[in-house]
């Protein structure tokens, strides 16, 4: 008697209705943030290439803050070290939330976006290194620049060109972007720490532990949490480790699950969900756009200046890494997961859908600019070339992904209509209830 083959599990599972709804809300907020990010970038570029460009430079380089703990910084540095810590705090909360209480707590579901994120970081770094292998000097210091995906920009493009992307693919993109941003901050901490003061780093553990103790006890008093978070950030900054690492460390101390003593699921949102709800608008609506405003202002100098910048192998390596490296890395890693496991694409999806997302992951703006500053020094000539490379690479990836995903949007619309055609009185589409009982 012939044995029936084991059923192949879906590569991009639909997920639970609760998690799909939450992801949809997150994407809407990030889309608004992406629009503000784009506006801030355009303003910075126009101002930096106008007759008043010196005023932009003076504003960016204006130093404020106390001398204590090395906090007398330029506004540009405050944005990169301070405001991006808020962004990474939210990213850390989202990642912990997905892996502790979301659909990705199932290792089989988590494996695909995590492996894709690793592939989407390794291949761009390899291509950048190959392009700059014979460049000499400090060129290879920027190997990590094309490794990260900008969540806000990528989701903003996705919202404009493809309004009906299936839930499994949307979750995949969001998780991939969060994971590789967290991996990027790990790279920053390990490879871009110039001078380390271990005592200050150890001292940072004291307010960090107090912050963790309070959030574990579900204390929501801002007058207690904010000073401890700021002190942790200040000590990490003074220790020589990039201060954005503090945002991730603080996020990882926050509990995700609701307190059983407080009534379990009926007690309201958990601590991580509560903090994310409060801080995400600040991150998407203020912190990231302001960073983009101070980081993206590069004087291009017309087409000749653009050509000169792209003649630098560093800028060229960034473009190749973002456009080709991200596509090959994400798509290749996802295909290998399908090839060597029992996973397969859902009915109605095609590999061109994954290709579109892989190209879209090449929008590496926020963290790429941050790593560029750390690799070559803010304001240096090579740093200006980095900005051009990041802008050109991200814009190219966005345009190519827009073409691919726009062509597939009609199929996405049909799939979404099929998923949500029948809805009971409980407001949950029948297809999600069917999946839950499989």
From TrEMBL:
Gene3D superfamilies named among the record's database cross-references: Na+/H+ antiporter like domain
Keyword Flavoprotein: no
Membrane topology: Multi-pass membrane protein
Coiled coil feature spans: none
Highest taxon of source: Bacteria
Species assigned in the record: Auraticoccus monumenti
Protein name, per record: Na(+)/H(+) antiporter NhaA
Name of encoding gene: nhaA
GO cellular component: plasma membrane
């Amino acid at each position: 008697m012939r044995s029936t083959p084991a059923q192949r599990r879906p590569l991009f599972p639909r997920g639970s209705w609760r998690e799909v709804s939450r992801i949809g809300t997150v994407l809407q907020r990030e889309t608004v943030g992406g629009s503000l990010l784009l506006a801030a970038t355009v303003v910075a570029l126009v101002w930096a290439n106008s007759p008043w460009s010196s005023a932009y430079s003076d504003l960016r380089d204006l130093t404020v803050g106390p001398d204590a703990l090395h906090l007398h910084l330029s506004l540009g540095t405050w944005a990169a070290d301070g405001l991006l810590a808020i962004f990474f705090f939210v990213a850390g909360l989202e990642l912990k939330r997905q892996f502790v209480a979301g659909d990705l707590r199932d290792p089989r579901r988590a494996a695909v976006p995590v492996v894709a994120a690793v592939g989407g970081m390794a291949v761009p770094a390899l291509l950048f290194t190959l392009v700059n292998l014979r460049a000499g000097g400090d060129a290879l210091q920027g190997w990590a620049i094309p490794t990260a995906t900008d969540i806000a920009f990528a989701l903003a493009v996705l919202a404009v060109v493809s309004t009906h992307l299936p839930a499994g693919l949307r979750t995949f993109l969001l998780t991939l972007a969060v994971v590789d941003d967290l991996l990027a901050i790990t790279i920053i901490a390990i490879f871009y720490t110039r001078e380390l003061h271990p005592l200050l780093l150890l001292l940072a553990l004291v307010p960090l532990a107090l912050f963790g103790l309070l959030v574990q006890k579900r204390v929501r008093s801002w007058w207690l949490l904010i000073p401890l978070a700021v002190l942790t950030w200040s000590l990490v900054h003074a220790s020589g480790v990039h201060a954005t690492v503090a945002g991730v460390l603080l996020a990882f101390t926050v509990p995700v699950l609701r307190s059983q003593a407080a009534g379990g699921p009926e007690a309201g949102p958990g601590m991580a969900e509560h903090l994310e709800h409060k801080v995400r608008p600040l991150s998407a609506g203020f912190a990231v756009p302001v960073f983009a405003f101070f980081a993206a202002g590069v004087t291009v100098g017309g087409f000749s200046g653009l050509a000169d910048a792209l003649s630098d192998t560093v800028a060229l390596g960034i473009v190749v890494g973002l456009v080709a490296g991200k596509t090959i890395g994400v798509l290749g890693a996802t295909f290998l997961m399908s090839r060597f496991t029992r996973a397969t694409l859902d009915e109605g999806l095609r590999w061109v859908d994954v290709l579109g997302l892989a190209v879209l992951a090449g929008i590496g703006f926020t963290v790429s600019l941050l790593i560029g500053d750390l690799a070559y020094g803010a304001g240096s000539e090579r740093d200006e070339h980095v900005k051009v490379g990041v802008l050109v690479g991200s814009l190219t990836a966005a345009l190519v992904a827009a073409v691919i995903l726009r062509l597939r949007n009609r199929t996405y619309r049909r799939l979404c209509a099929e998923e949500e055609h029948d809805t009971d009185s409980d407001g949950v589409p029948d297809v999600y209830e069917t999946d839950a009982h499989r």
